């Protein structure tokens, strides 16, 4: 385990060439990384998610880090820019090895209080056409990404086509992403749980080679997420509650539609196999709030 910590500490030095200057935090030494991992408090079972009016019922196969510990991992160990929107993190297993293993991954939890997201368009979405629009938006954004100091990006396709469970009001999908100069593709697996006042976002990131294990893990996590009584999707009151200015299709497309800054929040690890894993953590929610800041008519 500690050998992997030392490898990550050394690998973080290589990330400086990929991260924009304003996003790169100082790399940790092996001793600092070891100390950080020992300081983490892994929780299991019933977990209240503060700020989202939601909870998790984790099986023994998963553990939870609260917001403070999740930010330690994201900002200090993995060198992401500060993000106060992170509510917590789900990791496979029950100790720090999941965070430093070559095949490890983590699920970052955020919440967007944009209002009730209508699912009326869910059954009519043409996901093939939506993918083409997202691919074009990604290509169009590359000039701006380059100006901002980021490498260009290509949305290769769906790693998992979007699925919406109308009875549970949960949406999941996965993207295959290719970044300029990186030999292996990145997997970005998303879950959105819709509630009365907004949605809970669970974002997992790994290499495409981990698709089978990440998909299995995310499918296990999917039923563990629930909003509290009174904050559930079915509790929506049209006479008093705010309605989001977007639906299911925009919720999916918004994760790649922004130009400058969409991937300013980076979730990156360079492991012993020289595999770079990246994706946005909370940028999608921030983009949607900007794009749809007007109230619906």
From TrEMBL:
Residues 1-23 form the signal peptide. InterPro entries: DUF2167_membr (IPR018682). The chain crosses the membrane at residues 266-288. Keywords: Membrane, Signal, Transmembrane, Transmembrane helix. It comes from the Bacteria. Pfam families: DUF2167. This is Membrane protein.
């Amino acid at each position: 385990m500690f050998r992997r910590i030392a490898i990550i500490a050394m690998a973080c030095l290589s990330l400086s060439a990929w991260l924009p200057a304003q996003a790169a935090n100082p790399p940790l030494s092996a001793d600092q990384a070891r100390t950080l991992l020992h300081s983490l408090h892994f929780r299991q079972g019933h977990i209240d998610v503060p700020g989202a009016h939601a909870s998790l019922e984790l099986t023994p196969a998963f553990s939870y880090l609260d917001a403070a510990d999740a930010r330690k991992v994201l900002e200090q160990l993995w060198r992401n820019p500060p993000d106060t929107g992170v509510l917590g993190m789900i990791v496979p297993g029950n100790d720090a090895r999941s965070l430093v293993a070559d095949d490890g991954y983590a699920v970052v939890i955020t919440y967007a209080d944009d209002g009730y997201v209508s699912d009326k368009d869910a059954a009519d979405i043409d996901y093939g056409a939506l993918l083409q629009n997202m691919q074009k938006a990604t290509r169009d954004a590359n000039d701006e990404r380059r100006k901002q100091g980021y490498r260009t990006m290509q949305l290769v396709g769906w790693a998992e086509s979007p699925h919406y469970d109308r009875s549970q009001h949960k949406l999941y999908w996965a993207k295959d992403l290719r970044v300029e100069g990186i030999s292996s593709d990145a997997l970005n697996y998303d879950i959105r749980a819709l509630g009365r006042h907004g949605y809970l976002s669970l974002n997992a990131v790994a290499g495409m080679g981990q698709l089978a294990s990440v998909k299995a893990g995310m499918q296990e996590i999917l039923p563990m997420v629930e909003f509290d009584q009174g904050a559930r999707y079915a509790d929506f009151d049209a006479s008093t509650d705010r309605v989001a200015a977007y639906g299911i299709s925009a919720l999916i497309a918004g994760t790649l539609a922004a130009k400058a800054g969409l991937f300013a929040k980076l979730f990156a690890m360079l492991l012993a196999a020289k595999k770079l894993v990246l994706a946005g953590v909370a940028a999608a929610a921030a983009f949607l709030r900007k794009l749809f800041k007007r109230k619906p008519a």
